[in-house]
Backbone:
């Protein structure tokens, strides 16, 4: 039965709500005026391209916008799109390997899982499974069809910890770890120790050790290694090296074969998706980001390719973005990526809805003054008021995420800065000043 409400009551009720509506409009106008004043009077923010969006988490509606439809290089803000794609695509436990048993052989294929012996996650369930098998082990290589580097990556960063190579079966972050032991360098995995050479003519600028560009030959100076010294260097990957590293870790032979992935395989599940995503977001791990896209590709095709995963995401779970992004990698290392602030607001809203549990979501994001890449951006407090993702390259500093206010509200925000020539630290300070003002007053 339809309830009929007298017109007179409707008018009376609307009249009661009018003051609250007018108050909300007044607060909104005041907020817009203050933010306009910030941009008009911040000399630093006037000297480069800026974009800012503040939005409601309820429906994603933008409450304040500046250049929200303009394209920016996102840097690691691209990981928000990787996060959402992985959250929607992957099961609660990450598939580590696919395998079949054929006679006296166990043949396995990589899925792109980045957690195997990774520095923090240290996942080993797949290794335990292989070690316990009484079958002859064979790694079937060839699923990955992309390049070892993402599109637009800087080739001369090959020695830097933040740019390991992309492979179908990554091991130990696809990096070697070096540490000082009694004044000498010790390499892990130990398989690489024989490839360390000393050279008195080698004059390192930043590193004690540098890898040759095209080989796994590591040069070190003759100088005494200081106590506590640590370094991570990406190694040059290959299918044969992967098989050797597995054999060394398992202490049993691992053969290398070429065999197409069959339609029916068994799966070894390894790490929790939530743990892997957290380890990507807090330290902004590029290695994990790229391999999450391979895992997403593994869910719908036999080839492992990040570009295919991106195209699939943009035509499915991310089909409703306001502006079509140029999205070329999972980590944001490439300057070829281009996103608008309102696209980032949209994906933040989608993440918030998909995860559904704010406490869980915020535990996977850097928090201002407390964890991850936002730890040093905001003052340390018992209860952080910013949770989000940073993005930094030369001339690029972005922050996007959630800001909680003293009045108990939560807003989505995306603050993007491109093409500045000064210090990213100074840009960050100005950005923090505005976000802190919103926290304090709204």
Residues:
């Amino acid at each position: 039965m339809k309830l009929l409400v007298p017109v007179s009551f409707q008018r009376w009720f609307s009249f009661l709500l009018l003051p609250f509506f007018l108050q909300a409009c007044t607060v909104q106008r005041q907020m817009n005026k203050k933010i306009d004043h910030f941009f008009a009077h911040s000399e630093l923010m006037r000297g480069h391209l800026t974009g800012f969006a503040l939005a409601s988490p309820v429906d994603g509606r933008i409450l304040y916008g500046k250049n929200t439809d303009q394209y920016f290089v996102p840097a690691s803000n691209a990981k928000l799109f990787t996060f959402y794609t992985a959250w929607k695509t992957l099961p609660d436990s990450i598939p580590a390997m696919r395998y079949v048993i054929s006679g006296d052989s166990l043949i396995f294929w990589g899925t792109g899982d980045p957690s195997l012996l990774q520095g923090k996650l240290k996942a080993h369930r797949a290794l335990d499974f292989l070690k316990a098998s009484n079958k002859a082990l064979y790694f079937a290589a060839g699923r990955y069809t992309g390049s070892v580097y993402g599109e637009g990556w800087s080739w001369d960063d090959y020695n830097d910890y933040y740019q390991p190579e992309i492979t179908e079966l990554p091991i130990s972050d696809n990096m070697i770890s070096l540490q000082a032991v009694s004044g000498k360098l010790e390499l892990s995995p130990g398989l690489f120790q024989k490839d360390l050479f000393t050279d008195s003519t080698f004059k390192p600028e930043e590193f004690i050790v540098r890898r040759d560009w095209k080989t796994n030959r590591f040069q070190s100076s003759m100088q005494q290694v200081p106590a506590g010294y640590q370094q991570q260097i990406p190694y040059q990957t290959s299918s044969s090296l992967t098989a050797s590293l597995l054999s060394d870790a398992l202490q049993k032979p691992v053969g290398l074969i070429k065999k197409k992935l069959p339609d029916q395989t068994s799966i070894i599940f390894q790490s929790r998706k939530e743990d892997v995503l957290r380890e990507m977001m807090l330290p902004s791990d590029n290695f994990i980001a790229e391999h999450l896209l391979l895992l997403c590709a593994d869910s719908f095709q036999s080839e492992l390719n990040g570009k295919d995963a991106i195209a699939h995401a943009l035509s499915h779970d991310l089909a409703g973005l306001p502006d079509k992004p140029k999205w070329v990698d999972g980590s944001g290392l490439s300057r070829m990526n281009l996103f608008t602030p309102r696209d980032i607001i949209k994906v933040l809203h989608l993440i918030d809805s998909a995860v559904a549990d704010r406490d869980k979501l915020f535990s996977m994001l850097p928090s201002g003054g407390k964890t991850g890449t936002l730890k040093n951006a905001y003052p340390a407090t018992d209860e952080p008021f910013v949770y989000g993702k940073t993005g930094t390259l030369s001339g690029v500093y972005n922050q996007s995420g959630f800001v909680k206010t003293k009045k108990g509200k939560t807003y989505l925000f995306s603050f993007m800065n491109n093409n500045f020539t000064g210090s990213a630290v100074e840009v960050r300070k100005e950005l923090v000043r505005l976000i802190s003002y919103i926290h304090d007053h709204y």
Observations:
- The chain has a mean pLDDT of 93.
- The first helix runs from residue 7 to 41.
- The chain has eleven helices and 16 strands.
